[in-house]
Amino acid sequence: MGVIVLPTVLYLSKVLAKLAMGLDRRPDLIAHLLRLEGRSNQEEATEKVTLVEKSANVVREAFIKCLTDRSGTPGIHGKPEGKRIGIYLMANLCLKLLFQCGKLRNAEQMFASISAQSPPLKHFPASQRVTYLYYLGRYLFSNNLFYPAQIALQASYDQCHRQATNQKRVILTYLIPCNIILGRFPSLQLLQRPEAEGLVDRFVPICRLIARGDYIAFREHLAIGSPETEWFARKGILLALRNRCEILVWRSLARKVFIHAGFHGDPSLGPSQRGPPPYLYLNKLDAAVRWIQSQHAQSAQSSIGFFAPKAEPDSQAGQNLFGSQIIHKTTDWDFEGLGELDAQEAVASPGLIEKYGDYLAPDGYFDAQGQWQMNPPGSLVDGQPSIDYQQYELDPYASRADGEQDSGRPTLMMRELESILASLLTQGLMRGFLTHKNPRLAIPGARLRGAIPTGFPNVWQTILAREQEDDNVPGWVQPPAVAPPRTAGGGRVVNLSGARPVGVQ
């Protein structure tokens, strides 16, 4: 009976989904119904359940009925039989609604149920496989699982019909940024395909900024107020590109500075002779960052009066008295105005004495010898504050404005650059070690392959070697692996407790 009703349920579910998504785009059509229900004036503290989410819950019930059908063999050893032929039809429809309303957390249970009870995906039609892998890849991408997302999206793109240009373009919208985050830029052959039309102008500038190593230009391009970011934000890939690709920009900058200003080793030494490894002093990277900041400062001054859009604060160069010297950070309102105190405010007023008299002017105190001394009434123990201390720098976080080292101590920017390089080394995107006392990046073991291939390995190959140890994609049901044929004695335990050496009787 369920198999007969299944086409009707699928048809009604499609109608419900199309109606819910259409009304979600035109909320004015049902505004009067919401007012009758009293939902238009309900408090913001209570989370509203939208019409699309309600429709997704209805479709999910049909999905559960299909998934839990007991006909045939359950699990990965089964095949789509009975109502189970509608598992991915209902799942794709429900995922479409969940992505429309932005409730991706509700999809987690669906993927877990599919992994536990669904037959392998390869037994279902290609249209269902392509759609499901597309939504699975988007879900993994939104959860920062970029390598499994790349596998799912790549499989969806490869299995998509060659004439389905629009569907392929939608898949590439998420497959290209996923590969960029993993360190693999789109090839020229891919960008020349019909399905890549319109995507070249979106992603090629990002790839060029990453290769250039200009972190300020990269931040300006993906700033919140930038006109280019509206499309990325609408697709849900803006934050992933901003947060995950900036470390690649710093890798490109460090690589360029090392090529032009680093020590690549002594070429006169033979293969058996030992010498210092290639290295890069961090003060040269410091100078490169300050040059980038100066170039953007000059371009900002020259654009005044030409109606240039104002850059967002998070895309500007660091001009902070405290904290980061690389990026601009607004001062916390709790600490605003600390450097603007007037010297006259430091003079002890009668009101100040009255409020803090027991601390500033106590009845007595212990002197340097530990003897108790009486204090005249109203007299300050430490005397009147003097304005002569203004000639001294009392701020422990202050740094030299010219960026020079004071008595050999690294600047704040160099310490910040050191932490960025340490992050690159920890992630395996660079190889070598950092010296803290004499700040520099050293690349040992570069005699055979060279300093550049050793210290700056290919990003995609590095991530691939680390991630392919477990290529299982959550939510993608694969058929069980076929066991290799047994060889003679393979897999059996041989008891050698009574064995004797050869030649011993």
TrEMBL record:
Keyword Signal set for record:
yes
Show which residues constitute the signal peptide.
1-17
- GO MF annotations in UniProt: double-stranded DNA binding; RNA binding
Q: Which InterPro entries match?
A: Csn12-like
Q: Does the keyword Signal apply?
A: yes
Keywords of this entry: Signal
UniProt region (Disordered), positions on chain? 481-505
Q: Which domain of life is it from?
A: Eukaryota
Protein name, as recorded? COP9 signalosome complex subunit 12
